[in-house]
């Protein structure tokens, strides 16, 4: 199993450009998440999905959109990139089992720079 | 509010024990986690503890939970250079969608 994969690994954008980050998981997990990681801060949740066709806002959703058309894929879109969106983006997935410890599995990250 | 706090940096000598500390805010958290992030990689679950436990030991790792003080610690015995990484504390809120709140991470540097 590949686990959680993310493409691309690196990207440089100019202010105002758009792009889509792709996350894929092959573990048949119901839940998927997009986080951003900034220096000196913990991971902050952007959007998440509890199943195919569903999405919901996390802590810092502004400026991002997401789609979960297929269970294994979770896309993160930036319609008009801003320098404040320079960050490392992590995708994660988990299989909600109610009261279990329910590990989140993380992808390797996408480093995005907006000039 | 929801907050998890950790010190940002710890330096230890190889072979010594490392203790990374964390404080959290939600007394109803069901699980607390330690994730490890190596350079250029994603986070990987290192260990976790259920909120009704005080201690959990797993080989070189010992997790201590003080619910009264909302304090979590991770002790790594016989620290090796391969343990150099960033360690994130996270708490899971009861119910909901497996919401995790992460601390800022503690960078552990192991020197000879």
Protein model, in words:
The complex is a heterodimer of chains A (115) and B (112). With 115 residues, chain A is mainly β. In chain A, 0% of the residues lie in helices and 47% in strands. Chain A is built from no helices and eleven strands. In chain A, the strands form two sheets. In chain A, strands 2, 4, 5, 6, 9, 10 and 11 form a seven-stranded mixed sheet that branches. Chain A has a four-stranded antiparallel sheet with strand order 1-3-8-7, with no helix packed on it. In chain A, strand 5 (44-49) and strand 6 (56-57) form a beta hairpin. The N and C termini of chain A lie far apart (36 Å). Chain B is mainly β. Chain B is built from no helices and eleven strands. Chain B has strands at 4-6, 9-13, 18-24, 31-37, 43-50, 55-58, 61-66, 71-76, 85-92, 100-102, 106-111. In chain B, the strands form two sheets. In chain B, strands 2, 4, 5, 9, 10 and 11 form a six-stranded mixed sheet that branches. In chain B, strands 1-3-8-7-6 form a five-stranded antiparallel sheet, with no helix packed on it. In chain B, strand 7 and strand 8 form a beta hairpin. Chain B is globular. The model of chain B has no long low-confidence stretch (mean pLDDT 90). The A-B interface holds A 4, 31, 40-45, 48, 50, 56, 90, 92, 94, 96, 99, 101-109 and B 4, 8, 30-31, 33, 40-45, 48, 50, 88, 90, 92, 97-105.
**What is the helix tally of chain B?**
0
Mean pLDDT of chain A: 92
The separation of the N and C termini of chain B measures 40 Å
Low-confidence stretches of chain A: none
- Radius of gyration of chain A, whole Å: 14 Å
Portion of residues in beta strands of chain B equals over 45%
Give a topology summary.
The complex is a heterodimer of chains A (115) and B (112).
Chain A (H helix, E strand, L loop, with lengths): L3 E4 L2 E4 L5 E7 L5 E7 L6 E6 L6 E2 L7 E3 L5 E6 L8 E8 L10 E2 L3 E5 L1
Parallel strand pairs in A: 2-11
Antiparallel strand pairs in A: 1-3, 3-8, 4-5, 4-9, 5-6, 7-8, 9-10, 9-11
Chain B lengths: L3 E3 L2 E5 L4 E7 L6 E7 L5 E8 L4 E4 L2 E6 L4 E6 L8 E8 L7 E3 L3 E6 L1
Parallel strand pairs in B: 2-11
Antiparallel strand pairs in B: 1-3, 3-8, 4-5, 4-9, 6-7, 7-8, 9-10, 9-11
